[in-house]
Amino acid sequence: MSFNPSKSSIFSGIFPKMFLIYLGISTVILSAPTIFSALDGPVDTVDITGFSKCSSTSRWFRTQFLPFLKEFQQLPRGLIITYHPLSIGSGTNNGSKYATCENGWLECQLNKLQCCSKKYMQNQNPTILLTTVACIQGKDTVDQALQCLAGNSKNLIQKCANNAEGEALLLAEPFPHNDSIALPWIKINGIRSYEATKQFKTVKSATKLTKMSLSETKLARDNADDGKDDAGRLQQYKNLTKHEELRRRRTECSVEIRKQKGADLMMKRRNIIDNEDDLDECESENEGTDKGDKLSNQQMSNTNRLSNDEIKQILSANPSEDDMIRCFESLRKSLSKTKNPPIDDVIQSGLINALVQALRVQNDRVQYEAAWALTNIVSGTTSQTMSAVEAGACAPLVELSCHSDGQIAEQALWAVANIAGDSAQLRDYVNECHGVEALMHLMSRIDQFTTSHVRTIAWAFSNMCRHKNPHAPLPVLKVLAKGLAVLVKHSDRQVRQDACWAVSYLTDGPDEQIELARESGVLSTIVSYLDESENLIAPALRTLGNVATGNDSLTQSVIDLGVLDRMVQLMEKTRSTSIMKECCWLISNIIAGTQKQIQAVLDAHLLPILVNILKSGDHKCQFEASWALSNLAQGGTSRQIVAMMEENAVPALCQALNTTHNQDMLNNTLETLYTLMLTVQTSYSHKMDILHDEVEENGGLDALERLQESQSESIYTQAYRIITQFFGDDENDQNDENSRASAAGNAQNQWNF
Questions:
Q1: Start-end of the ARM repeats (predicted)?
Q2: Hey, which residues does 47 pair with through a beta bridge?
């Protein structure tokens, strides 16, 4: 549920400049002037959808779209460029409809600025309009985005974005696909172009894709002359960017129309009682808590359930401490129901303000009951959590998390962790309320706490590291990393598990964040988790995979820790498809490194495992394995690439071409097969006949012919390229032989008079 900016809230004062962005663009983009000169037919269009806080989309704008725009003061005739800022749904407030965005209010504001720019700049030079859109991409505040606007239209655009007109324009923009999208999503003449996301300047219009571009043909010819020149060979591939760009972050900026709520269960936890009338049973559930740390059972005696109206009446009549205890205990029990807790009823009754005030009452029992009740309120939806935060619950809860009574402190911290887990904005608000300082204070006393309390601390750390739009500030993460270095070594498995997930969130970001984990020394401990249960293996693999997405030095640190040798043992013994998928993803990111790092993977004998997974693994594992082989094909030496043939990868590649319907996997497989055949043809020509036979015998040629009928231009192009470049000569030679035989036969049958 997205935060509604039209409501009065603390965010108007606390987060005036904290923003998220979600951009969808649809644009016609072809490339160099040689390509545009061919546009003498019908109008060409390209649709592009992307989110401005998505790293791959922002990188695409920066490295491909903006350089393209700089080439042209006027777009070539026949080329139409449009853009579609994207929302994911809508809500209603006081009868007015408003758009909701995946990453919150700022995202919608920037989207509306782009929609309004589209309307009020439509008569200007299209290059100026698109440059304005590109300028807005990735901005951290609305003020920064407004600086992208100029001229007479600036006031009109700003006014439009701030009223119902902007909402209507945003809601009218179409979503590019019925199910989900991987960004940036690019369509050319209505057909998705996978190639355009990788190398924008090689993309032609859908009607011009029957031939390789002149530059690509020239490179292929030049490199054939160069023989084994690996540096030249690499230039033939579509991805000409730095090799670090091959690495893929865990979230590849995919957005699902139907939001997945499963992850939310990890972000928030409720303190419930299965039998709400048996308080002693509830209290016994707090395992590891000494009796001396508990509020006495006599204090925690049962009360008759009071209605909300009765509670309001009692609390409004100068209640005694006993009255407050009775009221807040009754309220807490209602909110602790397993099914359908009446959170909205409590909020609408105004009792949430009473709960917040109770946090400052100098009575342990009152504070404990109020903290417990608020814990369950902020375990609810975003709007329910916001109601508690707007009532002022966060600051006193942070204070109580350092209370001398362990039970009160743990319950208050539980509530704080729920608030931080809701969103990036609330996580940062917890930090403003000195939540990080409180956590580090608790870490200084960690040996004094029960196991249950330390588990809550570890889970709070994980929520303070969670969320990426935006990431937590680097100085905050640096402090949290110091605490995590202690928690990952704790004797309790649940503590280590939550701490490891926290490190995985910490490393799911730019290299500066990953470096914090390396500097803290947690990685060597996390590697040892690979020998533990799957509950620890999963976050360990996620963390190490994130580290491998970093620069070459960070990737090398994973290898130096001995991870590759452990991968072989783990992949051979695990029966979990999710663990196997994470292993393949981690390896694919290492293969996206240097050729020395690729060789480390080969020396660890992981290539045959990847080939076997591609041939007979779960489809999600096959997808990750296809990325690993594709990265090897694009970054390896000739010798490393031919190793795929030696490890019997060709049958697996052909099978993938015949069985998968995943377009990304098909593109990966086609790229890999093309590169393998080109490498063999150029550097190992004596093996070419064997390779031809393997492809044909395993149904590869039939699959390639079928894929030429694909609706995807990139799949069609790659299939066509492989057939014409590697299988066309045989057919021509056969035709020549038939012609010669026919001519000879005719000559023998002629009469000489």
A1: 350-392
A2: 187
Residue matched to tokens 């020394």: 521
- 584 Rama sector, left if φ>0, alpha if ψ -120 to 50, beta otherwise: alpha
Give backbone dihedrals phi and psi of 48, rounded to 5 degrees, phi first.
-130, 130
Q: Output the six-digit token pair for 464.
A: 């303070």
Q: Check residue 296 and report its DSSP letter.
A: P
pLDDT of residue 66: 81
Question: 626-651 burial by CB neighbour count: b if 16+ within 10 A, else e?
Answer: bbbbbbbbbbbbbbbbbbbbebebbb
The closest of 31, 209, 196 to 717, measured between CA atoms, is 209
Q: In terms of Cα–Cα distance, which of 415, 317, 46 is closest to 196?
A: 46
Cβ within 8 Å of residue 737, ≥6 positions away: none
Helix (H) or strand (E) holding 195: helix 194-198
pTM of the model: 0.64
Query: Strand pairing of 254-256 and 180-182?
Result: antiparallel
Distance (Å, whole) CA 233 – CA 223: 6
Directed axis angle between helix 351-358 and helix 308-315, to 10°?
A: 50
For 543, the 3-state DSSP assignment is helix
Name residue 97's beta-bridge partners. Answer: 92
Would you say 250 and 546 are in contact if contact means Cβ atoms under 8 Å apart?
yes
Residue that has been written with the tokens 């030679």 in this structure:
733
The one-letter amino acid at 404: S
What are 296-338's pLDDT values in tens digits? 443 444 446 789 899 999 999 899 999 999 999 999 998 987 7
What's the farthest any 2 CA atoms get from each other in the chain? Answer: 134
Task: Tell me the C-alpha distance between 86 and 105, whole Å.
Answer: 13
Write the pLDDT tens digit of every residue in 378-430: 998 999 999 999 999 999 999 999 999 999 999 999 999 999 999 999 999 99
Angle of helix 474-487 versus helix 493-506 axis, rounded to 10: 150
What is the phi-psi region of residue 209: left when phi exceeds 0, alpha when psi lies from -120 to 50, beta otherwise?
alpha
The confidence score (pLDDT) of residue 194 equals 66
User: Crossing angle of helices 382-390/424-432, nearest 10°?
Assistant: 20
**Domains (ranges, CATH) in the chain?**
45-205 (3.40.30), 570-727 (1.25.10.10)
State the DSSP string of 406-473: HHHHHHHHHHHHHHHTT-HHHHHHHHHTTHHHHHHHHHTTGGGS-HHHHHHHHHHHHHHH---TTPPP
